[in-house]
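Thread: Newbie trying to understand structure tokens

Hi all, I'm a second-year student working on a class project, and my supervisor (Dr. K.) asked me to get a predicted structure for one chain before our next meeting. I've only ever worked with sequences, so writing a 3D structure as a token string is new to me. If someone could post the tokens and maybe explain what I'm looking at, I'd be very grateful. Here's the chain:
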Amino acid sequence: MTNTDYLKKILTARVYDVAVESPLEFAPTLSQRMDNNIYFKREDIQSVFSFKLRGAYNKMANLSPAQLKRGVICASAGNHAQGVALSASRLGCRAVIVMPTTTPPVKIEAVKSRGGEVVLFGESYTDAYHHALTLEKKHKLTFVHPFDDPDVIAGQGTIAMEILRQHPGKIDAVFAAIGGGGLISGVAAYIKAVRPEIKIIGVQTTDSDAMVRSLKAGRRVTLPDVGLFCDGTAVRLVGEETFRLVKQYVDDIIVVDNDAVCAAIKDVFQDTRSILEPSGAMAVAGVKEYIERTRSGKKPIIGQTFVSIACGANMNFDRLRFVAERAEVGEAREAVFAVTIPEERGSFRRFCELVGPRNVTEFVYRISDERKAHVFVGVTITNRDEPEKITKNFKKHGFEALDLTHDELAKLHIRHLVGGKSPLAHDELLYRFEFPERPGALMRFLASMAPNWNISLFHYRNQGGDVGRILVGLQVPKKEMKAFREFLSTLGYRYWDESENPAYKLFL
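---
Reply by user tm_fold:
Sure, no problem. This is what the structure looks like when written as tokens:
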């Protein structure tokens, strides 16, 4: 199909029986921070919380009465499935939906609630896709492809039609997430036909970058596996038609990691109070990366206008904990380190003084060696270059340090496993403390302790609440117990003696 053919198909697409013209919203907070004008195209507010119903309905509305009578089938990680289920309900036909077993429950239940017959198969979209093709032949159903179909692509292209109508002024680039490529193909086909000066920039994640690899190879490349955090774009093989359109019309593709996606979810929440799913926030992460990579150069991007398509909000609630924790790293606002300090009195406080005025986000320590102490620490930072400078400063003052900011093992597991039983933790007192969470409160707590009380365990994590919580193991000489009790009574913080807690006895 030619560009003119797609332009005609997009202009005549039947999407508004089920879709609404989603708003194009200016993001004031993010725009100010990034020194550019950033807009969100709010496809997350569609009735199925995703853009996918546009393409699904346009495809199904163009089927013959005989095809609709037999029913349709599709394979989807969730959002296309909901679009097909809703469209089938509106058009009065049967819909069988094959979904990967890794699909979040919120999407599975949403499909069932719209009348879709859910079949769970495989661990990725590709696995589900091949199974759906088998069922298609067996039951004589019509397959509704989630991205590699001209009618589906045209339905998604109506988003671009709305963007240009809603913002007739200058737009420098439009950003869209890429899974199989249906969304960006439709958007690019329309915009390049009408406003070719606008750049079209795709966004993929480091662990699901099939389009990027395919473009580099000059042919479609099948990934051996894909990351599942951004499940809506977890596609191992991009479409044949979408690959052709992306190669022809897309100007660039930005690759981001999961931390950047988590930060983007937070950015959208701060400006809209809405929570996008990971795939839905990829375009926002791409805008930020596109701007950031020029900031250290001679020509930083400033004052331009960018549109990012917020393409979905089917977030599994259980993922929010992970998102909140990893957003700080993704925003370059937190760095984490493993630091080795001498196991001697006063060195712990000296290390804390070296951290300086930075807000500490996490502090994990357990006595394990008579000569050295290993501390896992997180601190707030203001830019991406700061962790390297902090590491050098630790080393300059005699503390061996390792930057773990981008170490997946450390961020996912090690930070929670630091500790265990120690033969050196004899005569240990274990206390929990709560204190008002404000900058400097942790350091003031440490400074109020007597220097000859040995800290044998320390755990603190900033949870973003009003109250900070610390777990401390202390080895206090018996002759100092009176002073210790006075310390507790004058501290002004709530505390609990956990020295007889059975969990402490068992694990620590």
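A couple of things are worth pointing out once you decode it. The first helix runs from residue 3 to 11. Residues 41 and 300 are 25 Å apart (CA to CA). Feel free to ask follow-ups in this thread.
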